[in-house]
Amino acid sequence: MAGLLALIAAFLFAVAATLQQKGALNEGEVSLRHPASLVHLLRQTWWLIGTAALVLGWGFQAAALDRGQVAIIQPLLVTTVVFALPLGYFITKQHVGRREILGAVVIVIGLALFTVFGDPAGGRTNAPTNEWVIAIAIVGAASAAGLYFGSRGGLSMKAGVYGTVAGAMYGLAAVLTKPVLTAWHESLHTVVTDWQLYALAVAGGLGFVLQQISLGTGRLAPSVATVSVANPIVSVLLAVILLQERLSRPAWHVVVALVGLGLALAGAVVISLAREAAKRPEPGPQPEPVSSTS
Description:
The chain is an all-alpha fold. Helices cover 76% and strands 0% of the residues.
């Protein structure tokens, strides 16, 4: 059930990204330097529908995390890239070629291996506050450095950098969801007085804003791919370190599971590179030089 809920969330995230991009393209550049550009998105019907799909997807993701472990739920969200291909083709008229299809097949095979052989065991629903502080500081510093050094290139670079940092924020938010849900099951008072609820809101909010900037570049493939890759990488690492989740034994199961996860992430990168290659215009024939006679 948890896996099914995660796949539904991935589909809704793909719908959200495609519709939000469709709305953002009508508003021109979306940038942190111009906060009004984010407010103007509220005028776009498609963007609002996409945001509703995103919120619904968060609900399904939370339900999946409530029933399963982070290390198995979050990698399934890589299928967002697979769902985004046909949606991008029909909604925003984006080309889907053989390399994109190959990447989607690789993702499915990789995730199947990870799901069958991964089977995380053990773990806890929370970690000591000092461990959370260190982890949040590291993720925050790495994200700030990425935005500072990597957002000065072209549109594809900007989409990838902002998408990566958005994915990192979503990954942090996913791991914070576990203790927040535990507090929710105890009582409303427990959850509203817990600092982790507000840390979750900040991480999710930052991820949302940064993803809109990434989608606003018009480069759907690198935007969706980087979010979908960074999210499980960050969340699985934090789940292993903070929540002490471990993959199943024997050891060869762990190896196969990690190979499968690597294949899934590689498939997402293949799709991203293929979509970017399709955007580059083929060099046309050069005009013949005009010779003059004296």
